[in-house]
Amino acid sequence: MALEFRKARETDLRFVVKLLANDKLGKQREYFQDPLPESYLRAFDAIQADKNQELMVVENEEGEIIGTLQLSFIQYLTYQGGIRAQIEAVRIREDQRGMGVGEAFIKWAINRAKKKGAHIIQLTSDKLRPEAIHFYEKLGFKSSHEGMKLHLS
User: CA–CA separation, 104 vs 84, rounded Å?
Assistant: First the structure.
C-alpha cells in the first residue's frame, strides 16, 4: 500500500475534523458540520503559522485522506536544551484501521522527530482508549509518567 504523508492544507480541514469527530470521545468534544465552525479555521491558521507545529494527513493511493495527526516540537531547557516531539490527535479512518496505516504514520512521525533533532517523542492516550494504548505499546512506547489535566472551561 503506497501512502503519502504531507502537511494538511486548508482544503483538507473538513476531512481532518470529520476524522477527529468520528470516535467515542471526539463525538463529545468536536462539532463537525458544514460549514465548519470558524474556530477550526482560526486554529488551523495558527497551526500553519507556527514553525513548531505540523498538522499532517496521510493519503492512500487514490488520494483520499485516511488519517491525521499533529506533531509539535517543544523546546526545553531540560535535557541540556533538548527538543521534545509531541504526537497528538492521531486518527485513522475507520475502514482503514488494522491495515498498517497507523503504524506507518507513527513511524513516519518518529523519523520526522529525529530529523528535527528531537531527543524524545511522547504522546498521551486517554485511558478510555485501551486499544490505542496497546497499539502504542506495540510500537515501543512505554508508560513512564502519570498524566494530569485541568480543564479550564
Answer: 20
Q: Which residues contact 137 (CB under 8 A, 6 or more apart)?
A: 143
3-state secondary structure of 126: coil
- Distances in Å between the Cα of 109 and the Cα atoms of 33, 99, 127 are 29, 18, 22
Contact between 118 and 84 under an 8 Å Cβ cutoff? The reply is: yes
With contact defined as beta carbons under 8 Å apart, do 40 and 14 qualify? no
Residue 53 lies in a domain: yes
pTM: 0.92
Domain count, the chain: 1
Residue ranges making up the domain that contains 80 = 4-138
The CATH code of the domain that includes 16 is 3.40.630.30
Q: What is the pLDDT of residues 3-53, one digit of tens each?
A: 999 999 999 999 999 999 998 777 778 888 889 999 999 999 999 999 999
Where residue 63 falls (left for φ over 0; alpha for ψ -120 to 50; beta otherwise) is left
